[in-house]
Amino acid sequence: MEITAKYRNNRSFLVILSVFAVLAACYSFADRLKWGPDEPAHFIYIRSMATDFKPPPISHTGSHSDDFISSHEGHQPPLYYALMAIPYTALKAAGMSNDGIWRALRLLNIPLGMIWICLVYTLAHVFFRDNRYAQVTTAFVALIPTAPYMAGVINNENLISLIFTWSLVPMLNFLRSGKLTPKQAIFSGLLIGLAMLTKAQGLVLLPLFLIASFAVCRRNRYKNLLEVLRTNMLVIGTTAFVSGWWFVRSWFVYGTPMPHSFYRPMLESDLVNLVFLPFGGLNLIAACTRGLYGYFWTPFWLVWPFMSFRVYFYLLSAITVPVIVGLAIRLWRNGNIDYRSLAFLTTAPILTWALLIIYILKVDSGTNLQGRLFLSSAGVIGILWVLGFDGLLKSERAKRIGTIVGLGLMLLANFAVIGCAIALYHT
Questions:
Q1: Paired residues of 414 in beta bridges
Q2: Distance in angstroms (rounded) separating the CA atoms of residues 137 and 379
């Protein structure tokens, strides 16, 4: 409640939230209707939930028009689509055209994005225990071009980012305090279950909670083992109750708890055969990582007609390397950094990266260009980048100037991407 009151009464935070909403709306109108990432496939799923009350058949080819009945997003868990089916049904009953419904659903994703930004602030405030650093982290995440862009289109990324970030907050508190009341444990299980009902990134949260539990036990020399086990039973039991039915259903309907629409793996053989590739497969993993990293920061499909990915990635790397150096300096200086909490939070994007690399290699090589899947961990990435800049800049005056210049450049980058979208689709 204290954090909620702070961002309600904080003008700077309200400015950040307003800028994010305006940017998301600009992206929504600049990006051609129905041309968002897999947008027709997502729309088909929403329509199927609204009219047939079930997911659409899984298409194993691209669903590039809403004229299709099946969807290549049909393998996704249903929570986001069930929520969006409610306004779809209301707007359809009101006689709105298909394009009008599409536009309205795009705009309804912006509030989801705004709630996510509020939760990024909450996570950063819990970590830093400092309002200024929390604000800078929130502004940083809000101005990553991919963040407001995704909030302006129809995509389940908006809901998983919200729930995933929310789930990290009680986990971080549990790691620090070593305690979760039964109500808090059930609530954590509820969030993890809802995340699993939204998108695959939710699968990362349960291992994360187990890691936090192990750290809590180890810190207390396992004297609290029974208490932690009871907490884990509540969390895992609630998670299974909330989301288990979906995986059971998928097993009966598709013969697997996690069906896929595409099978176009980058690596045809088993993962163990990576060791027999040149450099032990590291070059292949590096190529996958390069695509994911580049497409995390920017919806590059809007930019590629005007800039090559090579040039873009070099520019991005030129910014990233000093930040990594600054992070190392900041960690070396120590200060008031909670190393245990930082290591725990950093595990979230690392596990997400590992999950995506395995998926790219063994299931769908096209995921290589879906860096937006890291938005669920963007709050953690924002914390790391703020720490990196903090390590590079010593004086308070330098930090203030650096913050203003850095966020100003990020705002300009958003204007540039919006300009690219307008040039690509409207000229």
A1: none
A2: 7
